[in-house]
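Sample 1 of the test manifest.
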Amino acid sequence: MRLLGFIVVCLTGGLLLYGTGELPNWGDPNSPASLHLSNHYIEHAVAETEVPNLVTAVLADYRGFDTMFETAVVFCAGLACFLLLRDFRPKKEQYYRHVPSGVVLHVKNPERHVAVGKEFEDMDRDWVPSDTIIKTVCRILIPFIQIYALYVVAHGDFSPGGGFQGGVIFGSSLILLAISYNLKTLLKRVSEKFLGIFSALGVLVYVGIGAIAMLLGGNFLDYSKYAPIFGEHHIRALGMLGVEIGVGMAVTAVMAIIYINIVSEGRHDEGL
Amino acid sequence: MTDFLALIAAKYNYWLYIVLMMIGLYAMIAKNNLIKKLVGMNIFQTAIILFYVSIGFKHDATIPIIQGDHGHGAAHAAIKAADYINPLPHVLMLTAIVVSVATFGVAMALCVKIYQRYQTLEEDELRMRLSEK
């Protein structure tokens, strides 16, 4: 099987290598991919959309439908992870550690909850002492990562960035929190309900901006129809910003949902 | 000989991606562990993403963000297509990267589910467990 696979791979690779002879040279300005439509985008996008970042202009204006369904795919992936893995059976036992004395409470009755404050902390069954260096570094870094993520989302029109990238950066800051502390710390700050609603809200913001433009008498995602409300100045760029914010919300929440469900096998108690 | 060197200089990017893609394909075909297959799939996807991004490249061109004054009434006629790399592959791959992460998450969820039921992720053991029933 291994040998057969190797032969098949070599054959496919050889055929593909042979096929590269027909491809245009690397960096050739006259390659087929760089003619026709792409030149129209480069030469007319600023005049038509008022956005200097052509990637954002193509993403959120020329190919708005495509991006909308990509966002829907990301949302569906989060939903699929939730439906596949989420385990609603009550947690059997809980462990709490009394911080000053180091005594561990083992609560077997799932109905009883210990009010976790300064005295007690949630802990996992295989608990290791928390590392002060890691915790402190992450505590300092996470706010800056999140501000940077918001900057990337907001600045998508003028510099490299946008909703997908900013959303992934924000989502990874949430995952960093779960890795450096524990999963319960993350879930205390952003609840499951919040993440679910937030991801759906992101898709709704995108679709809503498109649909309201239809209500105002234009085509789907025709941002210029918002001009009577928000003013003429840079109206298409503002519309794209709104769309990017929707994408960012959906991606952030879905990254966190996927991580939380996979590491805890859907039980939402003890993660990595 | 110089022809061959010129050919390498002109096409080596495609060759690198094809090698990377074949590494991923081999992992998907020959590896027994489902997680290793998934990693192979991700390598395959990454090779295709690199391929697309390299298609957008043009010599002596800059990133597709229009420079200079771009307010109302600016000189739009000055924009030349040869000065900016092709934005279209970048757009396609930008969304593809995030979607590939999301689909990778779904695949991992399926692996977790398989492990919960059969206590293994090795393909031959899985086939054995399935034929037992």
